[in-house]
Amino acid sequence: MNNIALITGASTGIGKDLAHIHAENGGDLIVVARSKDKLLALKKEIENKHGNQVMIINKDLSLASSPREVYDEVKAAGLEINYLINNAGFGGLGKFHERAWEADKQMINLNITALTALTRFFLPDFVKRDSGKILNVSSTASYMPGPLQAVYYATKAYVTFFSNAIAE
Ligand SMILES: NC(=O)c1ccc[n+]([C@@H]2O[C@H](COP(=O)([O-])OP(=O)(O)OC[C@H]3O[C@@H](n4cnc5c(N)ncnc54)[C@H](OP(=O)(O)O)[C@@H]3O)[C@@H](O)[C@H]2O)c1
Q1: Atom of ligand 1 nearest to the CA of 12
Q2: Domains contained in the chain, number
Q3: What is the rounded distance in angstroms from the CA atom of residue 109 to the CA atom of residue 34?
Q4: Residue 88 · residue 71 · CB < 8 Å
Q5: Distance, CA of 139 to CA of 84 (rounded, Å)
Q6: What is the CATH number of the domain that holds 157?
Q7: Minimal CA–CA distance to 4: which of 78, 100, 80?
Q8: How far does the centroid of ligand 1 lie from the alpha carbon of residue 47, in Å?
């Protein structure tokens, strides 16, 4: 595999579109999400349409062990990625004190912890090689507080500030 983009949350939405864009530009892919069926369909579609290679990592990134497992799977396959695209994320509506804590905890685990951990695991390889790029998908929500989406907006503020800081 060559010119590899690892994209989290590539099974639908923005992540899936980014996977197609990378493939159209001639790159191979490692796609990560929970929905194995959707990832397999994407792999088939991209391999047929563009002839690129697609590796699937079927993982729930809100689990604490998942980011390390993703990194280890890439290494075990003998691959070096060129682009890390931390795209997987979700929001949720409602008054903070009425929302299910499990849902908000999962949101923080995915939007913040998994993104930070994957960046931490892959960035040293990029620095060592002096090549590689990271795209952390944030939101305009990151620039203001979000009543009724308090945790979501706050997670995106983290993404923007964290990413700008390490870019510097
Ligand atoms: N859509 C917008 O208007 C908008 C605006 C600003 C920012 N964003 C940001 O853009 C990113 C993508 O948004 P989207 O609208 O494309 O979302 P989406 O269509 O809901 O897709 C989310 C992706 O993340 C994956 N995902 C969700 N939970 C996961 C988990 N626990 N482990 C692994 N993967 C998980 C989903 O796959 P599975 O369900 O298969 O796991 C899916 O591939 C998010 O970070 C979002 O905050 C979106």
Answers
A1: 43
A2: 1
A3: 15
A4: no
A5: 18
A6: 3.40.50.720
A7: 80
A8: 23
> How far does the centroid of ligand 1 lie from the alpha carbon of residue 59, in Å?
14
> How many angstroms separate the CA atoms of 10 and 84, rounded?
12
The residue range of the domain holding 160 is 4-167
Please tell me the predicted confidence (pLDDT) of residue 46: 96
pTM comes to 0.98
pLDDT digits (tens, 9 = 90+) for 86-139: 999 999 999 999 999 999 999 999 999 999 999 999 999 999 999 999 999 999
Query: Does 13 contact ligand 1 (Cβ within 6 A)?
Result: yes
Instruction: Select from 81, 78, 59, 79 the least CA-distant residue to 70.
Output: 59
- Evaluate: CB of 131 within 6 angstroms of ligand 1: no
Three state DSSP letters for 96-146? CCCCCHHHHHHHHHHHHHHHHHHHHHHHHHHHHHCCCEEEECCCHHHHCCC
Whether 152 sits among the annotated catalytic residues: the reply is yes
